């Protein structure tokens, strides 16, 4: 079945450590997105990408980095510069960035600080 | 700037009751899209509906219905004869034509349907 796979489901970060969240899609979508969700809050956009080797900052990009070396993959790195990384992270994809197409979401990764 | 407001943080109903989730939006664009997503306890968001700003017809899909009113900038979602499986967080979201598929989400409404 086509879909989005995020891994791991749970992740723990030590002080000063960078961690990488994986996101893979087999929907042949051009656009991919990373969101952060805090308790009782909506989703906030971290980064998005419309094509391989291209990505743009969203509303809360500080302390995060991404890469898009393959169409199927859009990993997110939470760097040590992100002082409050504890949150639920969701990856999404859509056919493209331009036509307000619905986004399809993965199951999420829950990140906590040790 | 675009904004979505879901004033109801939590709603609790008893099974078979009807429930309406409110969504109010702000945008300066004349062309925009509105969405509803469901987030069950498993965590992933499930797409429910997309409506463009030029189509104000109400829509019904089974027990779900949506009421779009541009005059009040609202896009409300009603579940008829609610079921326990409807328990989830529901998000309303807005996309302006200039931002393409980028979404601005409301803060979500936690719906609990009790047996």
List the helices and strands and how they pair.
The complex is a heterodimer of chains A (114) and B (115).
Chain A: E1 4-7, E2 10-13, E3 19-25, E4 31-37, E5 43-51, E6 54-57, E7 64-66, E8 76-78, E9 87-94, E10 104-105, E11 109-113
Chain B: E1 3-5, E2 10-14, E3 19-21, E4 24-26, E5 32-39, E6 46-52, E7 59-61, E8 64-69, E9 74-79, E10 88-96, E11 104-105, E12 109-114
Parallel strand pairs in B: 2-12
Antiparallel strand pairs in B: 1-4, 3-9, 5-6, 5-10, 7-8, 8-9, 10-11, 10-12
Textual characterization of the structure:
Chain A is globular and about 40 Å long. In chain A, strands 2, 4, 5, 6, 9, 10 and 11 form a 7-stranded mixed beta sheet that branches. Chain A has a 4-stranded antiparallel beta sheet with strand order 1-3-8-7, with no helix packed on it. Chain A contains no helices and 11 strands. By secondary structure, chain A is mainly β. Chain B is mainly beta and 115 residues long. Chain B is built from no helices and 12 strands. In chain B, the strands form 3 sheets. In chain B, strands 2, 5, 6, 10, 11 and 12 form a 6-stranded mixed beta sheet that branches. In chain B, a hairpin with a 2-residue loop joins strand 7 (59-61) and strand 8 (64-69). Chain B is globular. The mean pLDDT of chain B is 94. Chains A and B meet through strand 5, strand 9 and strand 10 of A and strand 5 and strand 6 of B.
């Amino acid at each position: 079945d086509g879909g989005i796979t995020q891994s791991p489901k749970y992740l723990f970060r030590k002080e000063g450590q960078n961690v990488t969240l994986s996101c893979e899609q087999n929907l042949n979508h051009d656009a991919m997105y990373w969101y952060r969700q805090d308790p009782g809050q909506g989703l906030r956009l971290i980064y998005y990408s419309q094509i391989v080797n291209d990505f743009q900052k969203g509303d809360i990009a500080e302390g995060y980095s991404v890469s898009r070396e393959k169409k199927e993959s859009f990993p997110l790195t939470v760097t040590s510069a992100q002082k409050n990384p504890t949150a639920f992270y969701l990856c999404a994809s859509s056919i493209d960035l331009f036509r307000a197409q619905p986004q399809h979401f993965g199951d999420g990764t829950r990140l906590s600080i040790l | 700037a675009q904004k979505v407001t879901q004033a109801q943080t939590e709603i609790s109903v008893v099974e078979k009751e009807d429930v309406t989730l409110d969504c109010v939006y702000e945008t300066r664009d004349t062309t925009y899209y509105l969405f509803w997503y469901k987030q069950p306890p498993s965590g992933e968001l499930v797409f429910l509906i997309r409506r463009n700003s030029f189509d104000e017809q109400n829509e019904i899909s089974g027990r779900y219905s949506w009421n779009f009113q541009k005059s009040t900038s609202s896009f409300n979602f009603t579940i008829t004869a609610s079921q326990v499986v409807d328990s989830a967080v529901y998000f309303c979201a807005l996309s302006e034509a200039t931002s393409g598929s980028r979404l601005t989400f409301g803060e979500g409404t936690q719906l609990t349907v009790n047996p």
